[in-house]
Amino acid sequence: MTDALTRPRSDLRRTAERHLSIPAEGVETRHAFSFSGHYDPKNTHFGALLACNEELLAPGAGFEEHRHRDTEILTWVLEGALAHRDGDGHSGVVRPGMVQHLSAGSGVTHTERNVGGADGPVRFVQMWLQPDVFGAPPVYGLRRVEPAEGGLTLLASGLERDAGSPALRLRRSDAALWLVTAGPWQPLPELPAAPYRYAHLAGGGLGFRTVRGPQGGGRSMAPGDSVRISGDAFADPTAGEQGAELLLWEMHSPLSYG
Q1: Across the chain, what does the average pLDDT equal?
Q2: Which domains are delineated in the chain?
């Protein structure tokens, strides 16, 4: 893959470009990367991020019991409510404004369903990150997010820098997930720097330049669009008419093998 340390790039991917799968009745998934039966050797991950799925579960629908191992799974709900239950006795209902973290560790089974009694769908973004600690006991976390002043809110992190924060704790020592918000036509706050950054627009609109200055081409983003950012190639991000809500991964190393 591209060496993010030497070749800065902002790679915009539209939500319509995602691979669509319907793994069960009432379940619609749009995959940003190769996933399950869909394999594209040129699109397997970015940085340490293995998956970023847009999920839609109709009333009564969901994912039956399935198993994960050695994966950090982060969930952000856009609409409705998602019910989680796992084999280690953890359960929770994730609603907008909450972030859920399942560190699968040595292995855990779980179910994910549109909450019982719902009369509308649940829409959420689910992201999978490679850990750098393997085989540890599974861990579950759920927290309501209080947006920070200034529009840059830490959701989850494994960096030592963030050890004293209320953020959920990742088993990846050089990665963090941020919620970035801005009002209509306002510039985004200064974003954390990293060799690999992945930005998913959860709501509103966003414009940016591919590089700083007049040489940078202008790009616009709609909900569900994402940008894979290598180095500093993401300049002057500014919210659109409806403001912007962005999920941003800060990653300081790529996927590791072996």
Answers
A1: 95
A2: 13-251 (2.60.120.10)
